[in-house]
Specification:
By secondary structure, this protein is of the alpha/beta class. The chain is about 35% helix and about 15% strand. It contains eight helices and nine strands. The longest helix has 19 residues.
Length: about 230
């Protein structure tokens, strides 16, 4: 998987992309990242990438020319998406991450700023818009990192135990079950006896029941979806 990140702040990605499992995955070239600054594609001496909106209004908009030029400078493969991370996009979920990790080999991510981007970027360049949720952040770099993290961890070789990817929250529309480790007794709080029983059939049954209870209590929307698919 190859990522091209269109960003005004390349340094934002330095530490996150060199840390933890994602850093190891990039070091092993399970995925590769190319960072492009649209300022490098401006043609005026001030390297201007934003301007006031037509019709008036507060804030500034990112201009279309540097963004188009930045994307058009890339070598683009047939299996690609040009993604704008924006509150107006489809809410990111595990199914989207799985789809991107499975069906594409190049993701071009445009990080917005200020009041957003010129509408012509949305209409004539972007192929997909993705949102982290119904809230607004100061920059598009944070959702871009989230998207990269979520996709890379699904690529073969990133996570050591592949089975762990199938036994976690959202894989079956249910939240994850409670988990415990040593000591068995901490400040009087005991690990459930069933988990210490060695009876894997009972453990699996307990975990499934806890997933259902937890999802019903915390995420009624997911619980309803799970019920409909039973």
């Amino acid at each position: 998987m190859h990522f091209d990140i269109i960003t005004l702040f390349p340094d934002f990605f330095t530490s996150p992309l060199n840390s933890s499992l994602i850093g190891k995955a990039l070091a092993k070239e399970i995925a590769t990242v190319n960072i492009i600054n649209p300022r490098d594609f401006t043609i005026d001496k001030h390297r201007k990438v934003d301007d006031i909106p037509y019709g008036g209004g507060v804030g500034m908009l990112l201009k279309p020319e540097p963004i188009f030029a930045a994307v058009e400078s890339l070598s683009i493969t047939p299996k690609h998406e040009i993604i704008l991370v924006t509150p107006q996009g489809e809410p990111l979920n595990q199914r989207i991450l799985e789809n991107l990790a499975t069906n594409y080999n190049q993701l071009i991510i445009i990080c917005g700023h200020y009041e957003g981007v010129d509408e012509r970027v949305r209409q004539h360049l972007v192929t997909r818009e993705i949102s982290l949720g119904d809230f607004v952040l100061t920059c598009g770099e944070i959702p871009a990192l989230t998207l990269i993290n979520g996709v890379v961890r699904l690529l073969p070789g990133t996570v050591g135990k592949v089975a762990s990817l199938k036994a976690e929250s959202f894989e079956t529309d249910l939240l994850d079950y409670p988990q415990y480790t040593r000591p068995a007794n901490f400040r009087g709080w005991e690990v459930p006896e069933v988990l210490r029983s060695g009876n894997h059939k009972l453990i699996d049954q307990w975990r499934k029941e806890e997933q259902i209870i937890r999802t019903r209590d915390r995420r009624p929307d997911l619980w309803q979806k799970w019920q409909e698919n039973q």
